[in-house]
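Q: Second attempt. The first request was missing the SMILES, so the protein and zinc ion are both included now.
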Amino acid sequence: MFRLEDIKGLDSLKKEISTLVGNGQFPHTSLFIGPEGNEKLHLAYTTARLLLCENGLDGALCGQCSACKKSGHFTHPDILFSFPFIKKGDSDSQSNDFLMDWKALFMSNPYMTVFDWASQQSEENKIPNITAFECSQIIRKLNMRPYEARHKIMLIWMPEYLGKESNRLLKILEEPPEDTYIILVAEDTEKILNTILSRCQLFHVDPMQTEEIEAVLMEFFKKSPEDARSASFMARGNMAEALSLFNEGNLEKNEEFVKWLRLCYNFNHLEIIKWIEHFATYSKEVRKYILKFGIHFVSEMLHIKYNYGSGKVSLPAGMIDTATRLCPLLSFESMEELVRILDREIYLTERNCNAKMQLLYTSGKIHRLFNGKRFVA
Ligand SMILES: [Zn+2]
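A: Got both inputs this time. The predicted holo structure:
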């Protein structure tokens, strides 16, 4: 990992970056921007490695020089990091205090989210920050000479969490010290001051493709081909979402939704109550997962109904047949309504509504969709 060839897709962007680095024209202030769970942080760190490689010809890592070896082990003293963190106590903490943990998480998951990082730091749902003190440390470190390389690189992850402290960095972003590169990695430009954005050259990093997620799950996270395939289908281009599907054995629960749909169709009261009793024994996260899979399943039914044969259906092999057989039983409007019903069920589950009563009511609603009658509340 952490070489350009390890980054999936993004061919033209990778070419652009290696050309800029190769020609010594990489901007001194840049922002890698893209949605959650994609290659942007991975690519930003790889770019930092490229900038320090001592032999880098044509913008490729030589892999042999001392800089390449150190950056490969995340120990290069001239690649500095700043990121949001949860302050411990009243003391002036800085991201360096948490650097070992942050690097360990990054190495184990280059697609990590702020949520992954914050929940590792604290179990209390606290929101991390890039504090005023951290900003002063960024400026102090950037004003120091590189330790051993020709350049020094500061990678700032998730500048969205700078909030009102952003202004403190304007000057250094406007005129970074000589031989310095500042690389910002962010997800949401709306949460970044325009004055910061206007000082950076932007590199847009696209979401990942389904096949790319599938490949990373197998190659890097060592998941089985079957699980990797199922998870990549449901991830909708978000690697973090794909990884979350492996929590609590979620992928094995896909059948639960299909079973419920069948029960709703036949509407055997006792069987439905039995299913609901069983469903209620799952944790909130698993229940949400099953409902989310439901939305995916119905979207794929729409795909089968209207584009049959024209594209790949994103369902496990055994379920394509079931989905195909259910298709004629639901109109387009009913399928749309079913997605809305499931969406609302997820919303209610998140708010801890009485799951059993609610689900019985919802099962009746779904039954009526099969009869072609849309439920009017
Ligand atoms: Zn090198």
